[in-house]
Amino acid sequence: MRFKPSTIKDIALALNLSTSTVSRAMRDSYEISAETKKLVLDYAKKINYTANPIARSLKERRSYSIGIIVSEIANNFYSQVINGVESIAHNKNYQVVISQTHESAEREKMNVEYLSSRSVDGLLISLSSETNNIEYLKTLHNQGYPIVFFDRIPEDFDTFKVTSNNFKGAFDATEHLILNGHRRIAHLTNSKSLSITKERLAGYQGALKKHHIAYDENLVKFSEYGGMHMQEIDEAIDALFQQKFDAIFISGDKLSTGYLMYSKKKYPKLISKIAIAGFTNSNVVSIFSPSLTVVRQPAFEMGKVATDLLIQMIEAKRPITEYETITLETELIDEKDLKL
Amino acid sequence: MRFKPSTIKDIALALNLSTSTVSRAMRDSYEISAETKKLVLDYAKKINYTANPIARSLKERRSYSIGIIVSEIANNFYSQVINGVESIAHNKNYQVVISQTHESAEREKMNVEYLSSRSVDGLLISLSSETNNIEYLKTLHNQGYPIVFFDRIPEDFDTFKVTSNNFKGAFDATEHLILNGHRRIAHLTNSKSLSITKERLAGYQGALKKHHIAYDENLVKFSEYGGMHMQEIDEAIDALFQQKFDAIFISGDKLSTGYLMYSKKKYPKLISKIAIAGFTNSNVVSIFSPSLTVVRQPAFEMGKVATDLLIQMIEAKRPITEYETITLETELIDEKDLKL
DNA sequence: CTGAAAGCGCTAACAC
DNA sequence: GTGTTAGCGCTTTCAG
What we know:
The structure is a homodimer. Chain A has helices spanning 8-15, 19-26, 34-46, 53-60, 76-91, 105-119, 135-142, 166-179, 195-210, 230-240, 253-266, 299-315, 335-338, and strands at 65-70, 95-100, 123-125, 147-150, 161-164, 185-189, 220-222, 247-250, 275-279, 293-296, 325-328, 331-333. By secondary structure, chain A is of the alpha/beta class. In chain A, the strands form 2 sheets. Chain A has a 6-stranded parallel beta sheet, sandwiched between helices. A 6-stranded mixed beta sheet of chain A has the order 7-6-8-9-10-12, sandwiched between helices. The first copy, chain A, is elongated, with a radius of gyration of 25 Å. Chain A starts with 7 loop residues before the first helix and ends with a helix. The interface between A and B is large, with 53 and 53 residues. The structure holds a DNA duplex.
C-alpha cells in the first residue's frame, strides 16, 4: 500500500462540488458561502486533508521556503542564527531549509544551485572560508533572485547584508588584553579572504596602534579552512609557539576551542601564562579550561534581521534597488564574569 | 525583474524540438540520438538550465528528499547524526530537510505533518522529551509512509529503529565509577517517557546490582524537558545536593554540560569531590573543567545506518513488513585519556 | 456564489 | 528517433 494522501479532488467528488470551490473554501475566499466553507472544512478535517505544497509551489512559482547556507550547524554561532531565522520564518509561514558547506566552495556552489532552482524562494548565506569567486551568485542575484548575506559577507555585492561590528569586537577584545598588561598579543584567525577576517584583523591592529604597540605579522596566523581541519589549527599554533607572546586574540568559534584543546595538550606548561580572548558563541564557555574572555555575537538577532530582510525582498512588489548593510554590536564578556 | 529560470520549453522552442525530446535528452534516454542529446545538453548548459524539481516532484509524486526531526541541532550528538545522514543521502541524490522540535511534542507533530504532506519522501525521527502520544505517526506509517526512528525510539511501533546500546553504555559508565571506589552514585537523566532514559536507568541499576550497591531512588533525578530549560536542571541538581553522593552518572549531552555549569557555579567547593561520567558527543570535552568520563555514541554512523534503511523503505518495490532494530555500540572514554 | 477550463514544468504512454 | 498529449494537484481567470 503506497502512501496516497487525499486531494482537493477527493473532497470535491465526495461533496459534489467543483475543485475550484473546494480550493476557494480552503483558502477562505470571500466568494464562498459560509455553509459551503463549513462543509468543505469539516470534511477536509475528517479525511485529514492537507494541501500538497508541491502542487501549490508549481502553480504559484514559489515554495514558501527559504534556504540558509552555513559552514557547519555544529558551530554554536550558526545554530543560534538558525534559531533566529526559524523564529521569523515560521511566523511568516515559511519553511527553512538548512544546508552546510563544511567550508568548501564547491559544496557551497552546489547547494546554492540546488536550492535556487526553485526549491526555495530566497537564500541567506554566510560564505565558506574557501570561497573567493561569487560570480555565479551575482548572476543569480542580477536575475532577480533574493539573496541576503550575513556574518561572512562579500564586499562588492549590492544586496542586503547583516553582520556584527567585527572591528569593534576585535578592538575591544584586544584592548582588554592590553589593559590587563599584555603587550605581545598573538592573533589566530580565519581565511584571509573572509570579510570577518579582515575586519577583525583591523580591529586588532587598531587597538595595538592606540596603545602604541608595534604590529608584528609573525604573531598573526591565518587558517585557510577556518579550523575545519584540526591539523591546520595545530600547525598555526605550533608556529605561534615559536614566538614569544603573552596573550592571544582568536577570531572564531572553532579556532577558539581548537586553540584551547591543542595548546592544553601540547603546551600544558605555557598555557596558563597566556591570556586568551576569542570570538565564540558557545554556551558552555563557563566550563572551559583554560578560561577565556569572549566576544559574543548577537547570533539569534542576526538570524532574525537577515530573515526579515530576505522575506521583504521575496514579497516586494517591485525589485528593490536600495540595499543596506546592517551592523549589530558584539558583547565582550570578561572571563571573570563567566564564573558568576 | 522577477526571477524567471529557463524551462524545458525554452530549449524546445530554441532548438525546434518537442519538450518530450528535450526531457528525454536531459535524462539521457536511450531513444534519443547522440547528436540531439549533445545539441540539447550544450544549449541547456549555455542558458544555465536546471530542471525544476518542483515540477518533477509533482509528476513523480516524490521529492527526492528526506526529513530528519531532532530536538536541537545545537546538540553535538544530533549535528553529528545529521552529517551522517547527509553523507548517505547526497550519495543517493536525496536532499535532507532538517527540523527541530526543541523538545516540544506540539512542534514535533507540526513538523511531521508539514514534512509528510509530500515535502519529503520519508522521515527520520528522534522523539522529543515531551512526546507521549505517537498515534498520528502510526497512522501515517500504516498508510505506507516510510519512517525510521533513531536514538529516542518508541517501544510499540513496528518499523526500522536504530539506537545505541544504551544499557551497556550506562552500565559501563556506572561500573567505571564504582571501580574507581565510588558507592553513592547519583543519576541525572532525561524525561521518564523516553526509551533512552529507561535503558540507561536499567544499565545504571544493573551495574549497581552487580556490585551489590542498593538502588536509592532519591539519587535519581529526571528532567521532563531534557534540560531544554536550564532551570529544570538547576532544580534537579539542587535536589541532588540535598543528598550525599560521591559520583554522578549523567544521561545526555545537554544534562552533562548543564550539570557541569551549574554545579561549578553553585557548589564550587563540592564539585571536585564528585566523580562524573556522562553521555556526551561534544568534541570539546577535553577542555571541560571539571572533567568527566564520557560515553560517546556513534552518531555519524547512526545517521548513516538510519538513512540507508529509510532510503531502502522509500525505494522498496513492495511494502516492507519485516523490520529490525539495530543497536550500535557506545564507547567509554576515561577522563584521563581525554588529556592525551 | 459556484463551475469550467487553462496552465504552472515536467514525464511518459502512445502515436508515427 | 521524435512528436502529441494527458496529467500530477493546485490556483485563478472567466463565465454564468
